[in-house]
Amino acid sequence: MIPAFNIPTGAVEYLRNKIIIGKLVPGQKLNEEPLAAELNISRPPLREAFRLLESERLVLNIPRKGTFVSDISVEDLDDLYQVREMIECRAMDLLKIQNIREIPDIEPFLESTDDFAPLDCSDSDAIMRVAAVSCNFHIKLVEAARNSRLAHFYRTISSNVMRYKILFLFLDSKHDSGKDHRRLVELIQNGLYDETRNFLISHIKISYRFLREEIVRRGSSKKAL
Predict the structure, then answer these.
(1) What confidence tens digit (pLDDT) does each residue in 145-169 have?
(2) 194 Cβ contact partners less than 8 Å away, ≥ 6 residues apart
(3) Within a domain: residue 192?
């Protein structure tokens, strides 16, 4: 049961996690009555949760039809990863301009890299945990650039980045992005910003290319998986 003092936020977190992990699948209609009963809340706070999730582009409201989990598609992947690369590369440019070589509070995320690979694809909790660590690592990189608006905008897309990242981990559980994370931090600490930027682009494109090929293979350039 969700605490009454923050019902919409609790419902958002619950539904967001279900969407990100794939328990609520792309294109699935979110029926208010059973969801409200499952969460033990009334419909108004559930609708508010839907509205907040729609602002994150995790759900889509279609007038007179209802609310549906948003699609996973080549078009959405392309748009998301273009924005992701743009923000993260700009963050690296700002690190260079300010000669920033230390990433605050990054160590806990580096210490968790031993869990990155190989992963058991049947262990959804482990997949979720690794995806969260990876996403938060990249958030820390962007925050280190000391541009609050850039960091805020990156956080607005982080749920969708994590959604695709989890799909990537389920498909390719042997890839160890933790090693890439350590390499990125080492390059920044050594002031090798241009090399960091190039390595970051390569790191991002690994999952992008894999996911794009998989979505195309499933015949999903227009429709959800």
Answers:
(1) 999 999 999 999 999 999 998 888 8
(2) 96
(3) yes
